[in-house]
Amino acid sequence: MRHIIYLLGLLLLAVPAYAETNEVRIAQQTSMAFLQFNVMKHQALIEKHAAAAGIPDVKVSFAAFNGPDAMNDALLSGALDIVSGGPPGLMIVWSRTKGTPQEVRGVGGLAQLPFLLTTRNPNVHHIRDFGPNDKIAMPAVKLAAQAVLLEMAAAREWGDAEYARLDPLTVSMSPSDTTAGLLSGGAAFNSAFTIPPFQDMQLRDPAIHVVLDSTELLGPSTASYAWTSKKFHDANPKVYRAIVEAMKEASVFVMTHKAEALAYYLEDTRAKVDAGLMTQIMDDKRTNYSVTPLAAAKWAAFLHRVGRNKNAAESWKDLFWPEIHDLPGN
Question: pTM here?
Fold first, then answer.
């Protein structure tokens, strides 16, 4: 009997203990909508919270991406752990993967910022004024938050059946290239739908004005999110919780140490943006950084209503992992 017990003990020792990941790979976009990630990087906040949870030496890496498609592909293939982007990037992949082993849900919100549709066409003051010769540059046709906002506005103006009415006017272009082209006045497009600080740089030109403000459609709303897969969430409960706590801490830091957060952003992106303009954006009453998702249910409801998403969300909580369900989201 003693011999059997000894052998069982050896077998138990041979079975590897369950261990969470010691590496977190994050995809970050390079606008002011992702300042928490800049703070998390510079202050090693995920590493800090993971160590407090008993998982030391977690390695965190940040990779720059532009647009949701490549990020979501990398997330589903296991090449990334956390990705980020505008609401449609999360809502669309959530609907496609809902109820599957590859299910994706949101980690939490990042920035609450207005999206502004601008133009240098003096005859355009409302979306109904756009003609066939007008072109609107935005980060990604059909997929970017700006693209869906334009569809929301079209649906409000002409009905859900006409939600894609203005889609033929849109072209894909990075916010920086869009801004340079719009300011030059000689580009093949005359309108832009970007995000701070690029839209604010455009509006410094007196020939450019606002056609549409996203707050007119949604009220206060979250402009950027972080999301992850069920596989990563379920396999790494302590590391995942550390990520959520790091996002919360970074959100507070951004709002209470604006100059420092902007310095991190400028160092990471090497963006040539006037510091005074960025401070003005941060001081705008519409600007907030919070993990709490706002207007998420409105985005999901629209995408389902017009047939772009097969699955409907009964609540904003359907779209996010349970760790933030205690927050006052909507």
Answer: 0.90
